Amino acid sequence: MTDAQRTAAIDILKINDRGSYTVPTSGLYPFQWNWDSCLTALGQRHFDAPRALTEIETLFAHQWPCGMVPHIVFHQLDDGYFPGPDVWDCRRPVPTSGITQPPVAGFALRRLLDGAPDLRDRARPLVAQITAWHRWFHATRDPGDTGLVAIIHPWESGRDNSVDWDIPFQRVPTDGIAPYTRRDTQHANPAHRPTKDQYDRYIWLVERFRKLNWQTDLLHDASPFQVVDPGFNAILIRSCLDLADVAAAMGEDDLAAQNRTMAEAGLAALPALWSEAHGQYLCLDRGTGQLIDSPSSGGLLTVFAPIPADHAATIAATIDAQPTRYRVASHAPGTPGFDAKRYWRGPVWLVVNYMIADGLARAGQKEAADQVTASSLELIHQSGFAEYYDPLDGEGLGGGQFTWTAAMVLEFLA
Ligand code: 9WN
């Protein structure tokens, strides 16, 4: 079975390969997405490490001069996705979106080079590029120098319609937006996707930022939505630490020191987001200064960074206590807002499972890590390479033949 799964996963990565980048799945997502690509490289490295490095290089070829790395690169025109390049209107040589996504590149590059040290020379320019992205986060998304960065659009989190955003999202208006037609609901079941009200607010934010000509140093303060997501910050911290090691091994001591300093600032600030009552971290709403009372997978994913051992042990116990057959539900089952089939409001996502399992294992929580991995492989066995899965019955949902799901399976089986 393992061999068949591996072969099927490689087939999906090849089907979705467009030469120098890979689409998440054809139809629903016909472009290059930021964190999808970096995690996809981790799957590609098992059969073609140079191609895996190309995946990350292509993404960074579209980095903005300010350091931001966009969440979508629109390499080829395709009207099957909304919002397309005309809505973003970012005026880049190759059109891109104007917001970013979880910065997994530093982590992915380190893992790739650990297994393919012969690619180290070729990867040297990426170390400076990824560091510039990390610096951009701290400069533009942490104006108060708190050590933690904010997202200014739910799409930046990669967990688009999480219950985490419900309260701060109420501050985003919906009036005055241009009429639009969604395309996602033509490819996937609308009952499993974000609502129209959420899309209206997504688009209001895009229009707000577009009016400011995508000057990224202005957008944080101009956004009514500013949320510190612990999972997002854990990814940034982990990427800073991993990239620091890569830089040090290359003799790039200054870049190594910059990344270590940013990671230390984040690690010092994270404990303020801990909730003993929920046994996990929570998001912080910068608009109110309050923690958001929403136990989602973002707060469990925080174990991806080297958090205190007692927090890691508690997160392992919290996951173990989830009353669903499959782990890890993207929102705590049985709590308000949980919906087993609706996108990031309950379903299991294998990329999140992968990072949680990695963090748990590094924290010495091997049994819990193995349980998350076993659950992930069982889902593949039962329902194939879906975009996401119902944690109760394991049904595969959203897009099919999904690239990063296949990539994660290659990692789980390695
Ligand atoms: C918006 C591509 C992306 C993932 C995100 C996931 C979904 C896009 C959408 O698909 O978001 O970026 O249109 O729904 O939420 O995590 O990167 O797979």
TrEMBL record:
**KW Disulfide bond (keyword) present:** no
Any coiled-coil regions, as ranges: none
Q: Which Gene3D superfamilies match?
A: 1.50.10.10
Signal peptide start-end: none
- Cite the Mannosylglycerate hydrolase MGH1-like glycoside hydrolase domain residue spans from the record: 29-405
Entry keywords, A to Z: Glycosidase, Hydrolase
Does this UniProt record's set of keywords contain Hydrolase? yes
Top-level taxon: Bacteria
Query: What GO molecular function terms would the record report?
Result: Glc3Man9GlcNAc2 oligosaccharide glucosidase activity
> Cross-referenced SUPFAM superfamilies, in alphabetical order?
Six-hairpin glycosidases
**Gene Ontology BP term (one):** oligosaccharide metabolic process
> Matching PANTHER family, A to Z?
MANNOSYL-OLIGOSACCHARIDE GLUCOSIDASE (PTHR10412)
The entry sums up its family as follows: Belongs to the glycosyl hydrolase 63 family.
Q: Tell me what this protein is called.
A: Trehalase
Could you tell me which species this protein originates from? Roseicitreum antarcticum
